[in-house]
Amino acid sequence: MLKNRIVIKGAREHNLQHVDLELPRDKLIVFTGVSGSGKSSLAFDTIYAEGQRRYVESLSSYARQFLGQMEKPHVDSIEGLSPSIAIEQKSASKNPRSTVGTVTEIYDYLRLLFARVGTPYCPECGNPVGAQTIEQMVDRVLTLPAGSRLLVLGPLVSQRKGEYRETFAEARAEGFVRVRVDGTIYDLSDDIRLNKKVKHSIEVVVDRLKMPIRPDADRSESNAGEASTQEEWDGFVTRLTDSIETALRVGEGQALISIPEQEDWLMSATHTCSGCGISFPELSPQMFSFNSPQGACSACTGLGTRLEVDPASSCPTRA
Predict the structure, then answer these.
(1) Which of 275, 234, 270 is nearest to 252 (CA)?
(2) Contact predicate 63/74, CB 8 Å
């Protein structure tokens, strides 16, 4: 196959009269001319039709039954073709979230591809993200200052619509008492009603803890009371370990540590930077979508532009 050009010989589809033409590949080409000169006949009914027909013929008979088979165009030969796509000629959408990738649905395939075969890297140090052991998770929590209060949470739902009555019932049946829904703690004995048309995040509260003072802490450094005994400290570490293990089981490999006035710490058994200790959620197609809160830029919300005030263009006001 020719790698640098597309060669068309004897194109006579519709009102084309034995047109011979060479087109460069990997270039933006525009067909212009008066109405009826054969622009669409050459671009859509000849070049696109032949490229699509060859691609469909290369598929299995099972796959071909789901795709529309195009007729062979009236042309002597076309060389240098690749599988092709075409966008219908219609009024342009004014929606800023509509792009060529979304219109042709290629964007959906790319998101799925990156989510399945992509390798995440830590944005802080650039190292590949790997698995984190429970011991590493416990050691990170133990770095909190004495007196810190924390919640060990098991993620159940992340930014999905629904009422989730069955989810609450299952958590109640497993012996859990509280859940956190969209940042608010609820008792599972209450009748929790959610708007099924709004996306929710739900985590089950596995344990509520308060960091004790290390047995070997200096008295001058301790302002939260007397240091705990070695037996009390070991008991706290054991309880913390069991709670994180339970949260990982409930959250299918993920756990959250909620600390007042701080961002939640995400602990992951599969996606953690060994150098920085930062955990990341599992890759999903939503992370690569600028139309999803999980993948959109927090500054522009996925639009690519921001509305800002230009002080130089603003008019001063008079008192």
Answers:
(1) 270
(2) no
Residue type at 17?
Q
Supply the DSSP string of 214-280, one letter for each residue: PTT--TTT--SSSPPPHHHHHHHHHHHHHHHHHHHHHTTSEEEEE-TTSPPEEEESSSB-TTT--B-
Strand partners, 79: 7
Angstrom distance (rounded) from CA 26 to CA 7: 14
CA dist 271 and 253 (Å) reads 9
Is residue 157 within 8 Å of residue 251, measured between CB atoms? no
List the Cα angle 159/208/129 in 5-degree steps: 50
pTM over the 0.70 mark: no
Query: 112 in helix, strand or coil?
Result: helix
Least Cα distance to 172 among 189, 158, 148 occurs for 189
271: nearest Cα among 118, 158, 113, 108: 118
- The three-state secondary structure class of 296 is coil
For 230-267, b where at least 16 C-beta lie within 10 A, e where not — what string?
A: eeebeebeeebeebbbbbbebbeebbbbbeeeeebbbb
Helix (H) or strand (E) run with residue 166 in it: helix 165-173
Decide if 259 contacts 108 (C-beta within 8 A).
Answer: no
Of 165, 154, 159, residue with least CA distance to 188: 165
Which of 11, 10, 6, 50 lies closest to 24, judged by CA?
Answer: 6
Give 95's contacts (C-beta < 8 A, 6+ positions apart). Answer: none
pLDDT tens track for 200-257: 999 999 999 999 988 877 655 445 467 778 888 999 999 999 999 999 999 888 889 9
> In terms of Cα–Cα distance, which of 293, 292, 284 is closest to 113?
284
| pLDDT tens profile 171-211 | 999 999 999 999 999 999 888 999 988 999 999 999 999 99
